[in-house]
Design goal:
The structure is a single chain. It is globular, with a radius of gyration of 16 Å. It contains eight helices and two strands; from the N terminus they run αββααααααα. Helix 2 packs antiparallel against helix 3, helix 4 crosses helix 5 and helix 5 packs across helix 6. The protein has one domain. The protein has a two-stranded antiparallel ribbon with strand order 1-2. By secondary structure, it is mainly α. A hairpin with a 2-residue loop joins strand 1 and strand 2. The N terminus is likely disordered.
């Protein structure tokens, strides 16, 4: 008997980052939609996992559940990954997440400078490929401006 589509495709492993002194490997993409009932932490974890779904609408729907202030630290890598994606509406949601969790997200990027540089490179690359028609001036591209705000917060945290 054949397995359903979502069970035949494994999660793709992504990059390695540091979170609270622990080395973790991020999930690049996954193909199942996870569900959970019960305690709030479990539901937050499920929303995080679903932000790695291959369908951008699923990623966006679940990330919207994580935009509030004072999220658990384990949410940070998932928000950070979404900043380096091509779906503009999700990147705008990362801006909301950053407004609500600025110090925590900046600390995460400060602890992972190569990962942060890679995300900034992705922001520029996706702007060039997908968004330069809508935002022809790179200097005024909203996601670049968000990255600049994050850089300022990182500088503030590192040199305070």
């Amino acid at each position: 008997m054949r397995q359903p589509y979502h069970n035949r495709l494994p999660a793709q492993q992504g990059e390695t980052v540091v979170l609270d002194g622990q080395i973790i490997r991020l999930v690049s993409r996954q193909y199942a939609v996870f569900h959970a009932k019960g305690e709030e932490v479990r539901q937050v974890m499920v929303h995080c996992l679903n932000t790695r779904h291959h369908d951008g609408y699923v990623r966006e729907r679940h990330f919207k559940q994580l935009l509030s202030a004072e999220q658990p630290a384990f949410v940070l890598p998932f928000a950070a990954q979404l900043l380096g994606e091509y779906v503009l509406t999700i990147q705008f949601d990362v801006a909301i997440f950053f407004q609500n969790n600025a110090a925590a997200l900046a600390r995460f990027f400060a602890d992972n400078p190569l990962y942060w540089q890679k995300q900034k490179n992705r922001i520029r690359s996706y702007w060039h490929c997908y968004h330069s028609n809508r935002y022809p001036d790179w200097r005024n591209y909203p996601v670049r401006l968000l990255a600049e705000e994050i850089d300022k917060e990182i500088t503030y945290i590192v040199f305070r």
